[in-house]
Amino acid sequence: MQRKMTVKSEGVLLVLSSPSGAGKTTISAKLLEQSTNLVRSVSMTTRKPRPGEINGKDYFFVTEEKFHELCKAGQMLEYAKVFENFYGIPRNFIEQNLSNGISVLLSIDWQGAFHLFKLMRKKVVSVFILPPSMEELRLRLQKRNSDDASEIERRLAEAQKEISKRDKYDYVIINDDIDKSVEEISSILNKERLKKLKEKPSLED
């Protein structure tokens, strides 16, 4: 019998929040593209799959009865009804990945983030992404050409409210360069993974 030390690292639940237009979606996509040990959180929904959508990749598609069963059993970290369908974050998907050493990326607003803080604060590493300035945020929203002037003003007002919550996050970064921001968050993720390293002795022949 030979004693062999094995090192196990638990995954990190990486929560990203930002105002609309601050670059969260682009940063998330690049992080997932570059990391082999990071997966996107897959939500659960009661709506029907759209053409091309894959169960377990795009969403977990379930019946409304099953969805409510999971909610009652405490297996949904957060859920909401959007129009006639329910959407939620399944606890099992996240906890299984974390226990297997795989980090999970969750891109949500500050309200969703705060709810997660209450449920599993020790597992969460949160990053708030700021735009370089409110003027730059305005320009980014205008370049989208998807919203009229009144909607842009509404989004900017909402952004001010969201930004005021940034001090509750573990890290705050300014996204004035996408690649730099991705590198910064990758460094945060690696640092937090190292914190979670655990040494567990195991006996092997």
Question: Can you give keywords for this protein?
Answer:
single chain, 205 residues, alpha/beta, Rossmann fold, Guanylate Kinase phosphate binding domain, 2 domains, five-stranded parallel sheet, four-stranded mixed sheet, 7 helices, 41% helix, disordered C terminus, ATP-binding, P-loop_NTPase
Describe the structure.
The protein is built from seven helices and eleven strands. The strands form three sheets. A five-stranded parallel sheet has the order 3-8-2-9-10, sandwiched between helices. The chain has two domains: 1-37 and 102-205, P-loop containing nucleotide triphosphate hydrolases (Rossmann fold, 3-Layer(aba) Sandwich), CATH 3.40.50; 42-100, Guanylate Kinase phosphate binding domain. It has 205 residues and is an alpha/beta fold. The longest helix has 18 residues, at 178-195. Helix 5 (134-144) crosses helix 6 (149-163). Mean pLDDT is 90; it is low at 199-205. The chain has helices at 24-34, 64-72, 91-99, 110-120, 134-144, 149-163, 178-195, and strands spanning 2-9, 13-17, 38-40, 44-45, 60-61, 76-82, 85-90, 103-107, 124-130, 171-174, 197-204. Its EC number is 2.7.4.8. It is found in: Cytoplasm. ATP binds at residues 18-25. Belongs to the guanylate kinase family.
